[in-house]
Amino acid sequence: MLIVRNPRSFDSFDRMFDQLTSSMFTAPTARRSAAPQVQADWHEGSLVLTVDLPGVPRDAVSVEVAERSLTVAVEHTTDRGDLRWSRTLQLGGSLDAEAVNARYADGRLTVTVPPAAKPEPRRISIEGPADEATGSEVVAPPAIEASAEG
């Protein structure tokens, strides 16, 4: 019995094998997949965010506040890969979005959002016509006299 090999029958297998071996022996794309560790705590009414960014320079980190949203972002490139990360938090009404401050030291970013000042109670004056409650005289509408014709 004569066995003849069909050259096309192994084409798809050869392509799969080539793809598998080429992906095993080529350098992976240099991109970090792990996100930085973020910790949120309350301290004396303030929201305190701590982000650990070891090895990341301060100029690669940005903190922005826009329309009651706080965004912390990092864009850093090294010989080991790129780190691109951001996190956005919505700030509630009890926090002062205008007074946010950030500090970066020893690879740790600390963002503090203080509580909003509580408005002081105030008396509101009421406008309108005077009445008996203020001691002003209330004028009654003129009486209609009935006429008797007979």
What can be said about this structure in brief?
This protein is mainly beta and 150 residues long. The protein contains 1 helix and 7 strands.
Structural descriptors:
elongated, single chain, 150 residues, 4-stranded antiparallel beta sheet, 3-stranded antiparallel beta sheet
Mean pLDDT: 79
Anisotropy-based shape: elongated
Low-pLDDT segments: none
The profile of the biggest β sheet is: 4 strands, antiparallel
Q: How are the strands of the largest sheet arranged? A: 1-2-7-6
- Which sequence of SSEs, written as H and E, runs from N to C? HEEEEEEE
Number of beta-strand segments: 7
Describe this structure in words.
By secondary structure, this protein is mainly β. The protein has one helix at 11-25, and strands at 38-43, 46-52, 61-66, 69-78, 81-90, 101-105, 108-113. The chain has one helix and seven strands, in the order αβββββββ. It has a four-stranded antiparallel sheet with strand order 1-2-7-6, with no helix packed on it. A hairpin with a 2-residue loop joins strand 6 (101-105) and strand 7. It starts with 10 loop residues before the first helix and ends in a 37-residue tail after the last strand. The model has no long low-confidence stretch (mean pLDDT 79).
